[in-house]
Amino acid sequence: MPAARIKWDGIPKLVGRVHALGPFTHAQLARVLAQQAAVAEGDAKVTAPWTDRTGAARNGLYATSRVAPGRGELEIGHGVDYGIWLEIKNSGRYAAVLPTLQRTVPRVAQALGGLW
């Protein structure tokens, strides 16, 4: 299924800080990403610009988060196989994932800024 992700992976300064601060930072990173994933999913479902026919595409929008040592991910995507066409057809007129990601990144960055 189409998805967009925020990955903190391979950014030496950030990864170094995450490793240096240890388990507390990983717990906080997990908390921030889980919270922002919930906000992003609600945002995507509310602001999706298309008119529903069955509700499947809107209900299939999702956001999840994962944290591993030195890495955090927030993924936003579609749960329907035709979601890719909503994102790219008509020059993105019906896109929900990318606009949601663009609104989510600053919130995540601000929330993570308080960790160090």
Report on the architecture of this protein.
Helices cover 55% and strands 17% of the residues. It is built from 4 helices and 3 strands; from the N terminus they run E-H-H-E-E-H-H. It has a 3-stranded antiparallel beta sheet with strand order 1-3-2. Strand 2 and strand 3 form a beta hairpin. The longest helix is centred in the first third of the chain and has 36 residues.
Write the layout of secondary structure elements.
Blueprint (H helix, E strand, L loop, with lengths): L2 E6 L3 H36 L8 H5 L1 E7 L2 E7 L5 H6 L8 H17 L3
Order of SSEs = EHHEEHH
Question: What is the average of the pLDDT values?
Answer: 85
Percent of sequence in beta strands: 15-25%
Largest sheet: 3 strands, antiparallel
Q: Tell me the number of structural domains.
A: 1
Count, helices: 4
Q: Tell the overall outline.
A: elongated
Into which percent range does the helicity of residues fall? 55-70%
Rg over alpha carbons: 15 Å
Distance between the termini: 35 Å
The spatial strand order of the largest sheet comes to 1-3-2
- Low-pLDDT sequence parts: none
Number of strands: 3
Q: Structural class from helices and strands?
A: alpha+beta
Brief summary of the model shown:
This protein has 116 residues and is of the alpha+beta class. The chain contains four helices and three strands; from the N terminus they run βααββαα.
